[in-house]
Amino acid sequence: MTGAPASAAGGSSPQAKGAAGASPVVGPATDVSDAPDVSGAAVDGQDAGRPPRGAKLAAAAVNQASVWNIANLLTMLRLILVPGFVALMLADGGYDPAWRALAWAAFAIAMITDLFDGHLARTYDLVTDFGKIADPIADKAIMGAALICLSSLGDLPWWVTIVILGRELGITLLRFLVIRYGVIPASRGGKLKTLTQGVAVGMYVLALTGWLATLRFWVMAAAVVLTVVTGLDYVRQAIVLRRQGIAEREAASRETEA
């Protein structure tokens, strides 16, 4: 901030003359963007109580930039990995061990990011509308792509793929249907199901033989059982939540009428 203009001091001050005659120089501590705010506030005091020009646009830019946080970037990485995984999985006919190993690496990275993005969003208050929508889509996309590729290659029966994907899509739809009554929290069984599915599918993606191939069969069997059991439990929770919500609304309505 500068002092009074040279004209106000009668022009007798050498410093004033120097300031009046010197060309404006912006130093390291000076921001050119501050100039309109200073001049705007000095005009008859009209803008003294108003926010600086462009403040709303700047706030909107900050809100938009907040979408590009680490949690959302991990979610976007998972979405990008889906087509890459499919290409690696089906490369050279889909049975080359080297390509399958690369596909497994892409799948593993996607599963690992799935473990971290939600935790980071909740811990560091990085939850955004984009993340709420994109995260479940990314989860279903990578798992669905892996299951469909395995079934199309004949490595996994189609009924397993249908059961797992049908359960995931059905529970997602159920959550939206009962959201007016409350949110169905993720259970320990659901988290164990997700982990078991990831391990089982990852073992099928790899070209395993011998006892490892037998082991992956039993891991997948456990994943299918957990998929069905936890799915039925979510249906039960949804029914209970809906009944409680209806009862609470009816009680509130009676109190209002009374």
SS-based class: mainly alpha
Tally of DSSP β-strands: 0
Mean pLDDT: 77
Characterize the overall form. globular
As a percent range, the share of helical residues equals over 70%
- Beta-strand percent range: under 5%
Q: Can you tell me the residue ranges where pLDDT is under 50 for at least 5 consecutive residues? A: 1-48, 54-65
Largest sheet: none
- Rg from Cα: 30 Å
- H/E series, N to C? HHHHHHHHH
**Number of H- or I-type helical stretches:** 9
Q: How many angstroms separate the termini?
A: 65 Å
Give a description of the structure.
With 258 residues, the chain is mainly alpha-helical. α5 packs antiparallel against α6 and α8 runs antiparallel to α9. The longest helix is centred in the C-terminal third of the chain and has 47 residues.
Describe the secondary-structure layout:
Elements: H1 14-21, H2 35-42, H3 55-65, H4 70-90, H5 97-123, H6 129-152, H7 158-177, H8 188-205, H9 211-257
Helix pairs in contact: 4-5, 4-6, 5-6, 5-8, 6-7, 6-8, 7-9, 8-9
Notable features of this structure?
disordered N terminus, mainly alpha, 71% helix, globular, 9 helices, 258 residues
Structure summary:
The protein has 258 residues and is mostly helical.
